[in-house]
């Protein structure tokens, strides 16, 4: 559908619909649903743990928008809500969005934030510029989930610019950097227009379910955007973002497979935790598998001593000045800092883990790059500002 058609829609359609209609109607005519007297719903793009995401037409700005609609927030635990945390952090990031920094090109910011009502409660909504699929989805395109080195280098290099802006300018740490939370930028509106055409020609047929007891809701199928290989990553999802500037964070945090060792050891953590996550993700994208797997897959539980043993396998024993300050010291280490847990330390090395770069000068450069990032001591871990000019990242393709 052309943009002229959107103008016709604006004149001819009512703009009084709300989330109440989206949750309860059995009609498949999504285009009659308008949020905040502005965003006309086109199609469902997907969903996550705390929200659904919709493609919409912004009738005020005359452009496409991606509308993230949150689930109901538990009023008894509102302070811990990732939804409210994301909104608070987006509002903080907006304060620094006028700064001239290249990281802004690779960081997703909100265009609009508002609330709307349903039969269940009030829901928070965030309007973004639409983006493509996640890097996790991109992995599924390549054999064994191994993304070509040239594309990995492009993604990671740009991601460090985003993190540099978050750290140096905004004073926050993302804390949940993973392939799922990095989107591929859409170059133009072609794929969005395709989704709109699909919805117009073959409207989504809703199915009815229940929520919060007997309350009926309508569920629509998702129409994901077209996969692009632009090489331009967009860091997103700030539900776990934390303020670091002027704060002391020492709680259990981060996702299991990307958890920095200072968090593992219950020590204070901050900006370097994000750098660690990017390092682990770099290896995952290149090799198609995680460096660490500290999960009891029978019971689906994270095993802390297993994680420590695996970290030691790749990094060696942690320095005494690090583990002596950890409350886990006497549990897993002796007075000399030796590992005393019953779980064995696996025989492992980064040299053996990296197979996609053949032995030679480039592999040596890459191993130096990754060892600047995967360190026990966050104080000696490379900062985003330092790593941006690393020899491997700057190496000609």
UniProtKB/TrEMBL annotation:
PANTHER family the record matches: PROTEIN KINASE DOMAIN-CONTAINING PROTEIN-RELATED (PTHR47634)
Provide the GO biological process annotations: regulation of mRNA processing; spliceosomal complex assembly
Species source reads Penicillium camemberti (strain FM 013)
Q: Which reaction does it catalyse?
A: L-seryl-[protein] + ATP = O-phospho-L-seryl-[protein] + ADP + H(+); L-threonyl-[protein] + ATP = O-phospho-L-threonyl-[protein] + ADP + H(+)
Question: What's the Enzyme Commission number for this chain?
Answer: 2.7.11.1
Q: Report the GO molecular function annotations.
A: ATP binding; protein serine/threonine kinase activity
Example GO CC term: the record gives: cytoplasm
UniProt name for this protein: non-specific serine/threonine protein kinase
- Domain Protein kinase: from-to ranges: 39-393
């Amino acid at each position: 559908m052309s943009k002229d058609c959107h103008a016709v829609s604006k004149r001819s359609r009512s703009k009084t619909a709300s989330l109440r209609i989206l949750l309860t109607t059995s009609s498949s005519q999504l285009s009659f649903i308008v949020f905040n007297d502005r965003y006309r719903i086109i199609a469902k793009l997907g969903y996550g743990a705390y929200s659904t995401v919709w493609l919409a037409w912004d009738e005020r700005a005359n452009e496409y928008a991606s509308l993230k609609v949150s689930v109901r927030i538990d009023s008894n635990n509102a302070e811990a809500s990732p939804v409210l945390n994301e909104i608070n952090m987006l509002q903080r990031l907006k304060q620094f969005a006028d700064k001239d920094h290249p990281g802004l090109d690779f960081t997703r910011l909100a265009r609009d934030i508002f609330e709307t009502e349903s039969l269940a409660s009030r829901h928070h909504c965030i309007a973004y510029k639409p983006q493509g699929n996640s890097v996790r989805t991109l992995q599924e395109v390549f054999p064994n989930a191994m993304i070509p080195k040239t594309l990995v280098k492009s993604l990671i290099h740009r991601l460090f610019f985003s993190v540099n802006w978050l750290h140096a300018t905004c004073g926050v740490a993302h804390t949940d950097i993973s392939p799922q939370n990095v989107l591929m930028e859409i170059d133009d509106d072609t794929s969005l227009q395709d989704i709109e055409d699909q919805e117009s020609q073959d409207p989504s047929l809703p199915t009815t379910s229940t929520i919060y007891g007997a309350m009926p809701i309508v569920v629509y199928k998702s129409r994901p955007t077209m996969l692009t290989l632009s090489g331009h990553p967009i860091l997103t999802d700030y539900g776990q973002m934390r303020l670091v500037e002027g704060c002391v964070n020492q709680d259990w945090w981060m996702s299991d497979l990307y958890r920095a060792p200072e968090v593992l050891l219950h020590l204070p953590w901050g900006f370097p935790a994000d750098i660690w996550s990017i390092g682990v993700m770099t290896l995952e994208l290149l090799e198609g598998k995680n460096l660490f797997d500290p999960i009891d897959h029978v019971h689906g539980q994270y095993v802390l001593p297993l994680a420590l043993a695996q970290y030691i396998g790749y990094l060696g024993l942690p320095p005494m000045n690090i583990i002596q300050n950890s409350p886990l010291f006497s549990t897993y280490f002796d007075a000399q800092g030796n590992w005393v847990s019953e779980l064995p330390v696996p025989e492992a090395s980064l040299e053996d883990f990296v197979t996609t770069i053949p032995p030679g000068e480039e592999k040596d450069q890459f191993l130096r790059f990754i060892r600047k990032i995967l360190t026990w001591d966050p104080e000696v871990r490379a900062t985003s500002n330092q790593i941006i000019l690393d020899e491997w990242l700057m190496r000609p393709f």
